[in-house]
Design goal:
The chain is mostly beta strands and 171 residues long. It has no helices and 15 strands. Strands 3, 6, 7, 8, 10, 11 and 14 form a seven-stranded antiparallel β-sheet that branches. It has a six-stranded antiparallel β-sheet with strand order 1-2-15-5-12-9, with no helix packed on it. The protein has a two-stranded antiparallel ribbon with strand order 4-13.
Length: 171
């Protein structure tokens, strides 16, 4: 994963290779104490492109709902929800949570951590705020292309100071 540092944040653009979950890891980076927005944003808006994301960790500890097990979708028709409520992540546009074997990605392998994963379709996005103590951090996660995409999906990952709130910027 290519990491670009500017200011007090890090940014990466990733593109998983195929429908198996790939591991992505940022080199360790030092942050002062504070509140940071963690954002995943789809970059391809042509065709029907979806990336699945799971196992989001900071220093090998899952971030809040980093395996996307809440809300439980086991009783949801089709097994996926766009912009779910009470997920501890905020979802914008075409993004949400999908369970293993859902109608959204029936041919993908199971999520590596639990029974559900997040998905980002086209230019959808998801974010949450993390409060950290001063220190050195490593961001890790797993991502896969949905089997059957019309083209590979790229995702911009940001971990940046959030100030009064998190905002998603399109570049």
């Amino acid at each position: 994963m290519k990491i670009t540092e500017y200011g007090r944040g890090v940014t990466a653009i990733i593109q998983p290779d195929g429908s198996d979950y790939n591991k992505f890891s940022a080199a360790p980076f030092a942050f002062p104490a504070g509140s940071y927005g963690l954002t995943f944003e789809g970059l391809n808006n042509s065709g029907d492109n979806i990336v699945l994301i799971d196992s989001v960790t900071l220093n090998n500890t899952l971030v809040t709902n980093g395996s996307f097990e809440y809300p439980d979708l086991s009783q949801v028709d089709g097994g996926y929800v766009y912009r779910p409520l009470n997920a501890t992540w905020s979802f914008l546009g075409d993004a949400g949570i999908s369970q293993n074997g859902s109608d959204l990605a029936p041919n993908n392998p199971d999520a590596p951590d639990g029974k559900q994963a997040a998905f980002i379709q086209n230019i959808g996005s998801m974010f949450q705020t993390q409060t950290v103590t001063a220190g050195t951090y490593t961001l890790r996660f797993r991502a896969a292309q949905r089997d059957g995409n019309t083209m590979d999906q790229q995702v911009r990952v940001n971990f940046r100071p959030s100030g009064a709130g998190v905002s998603v910027k399109r570049f």
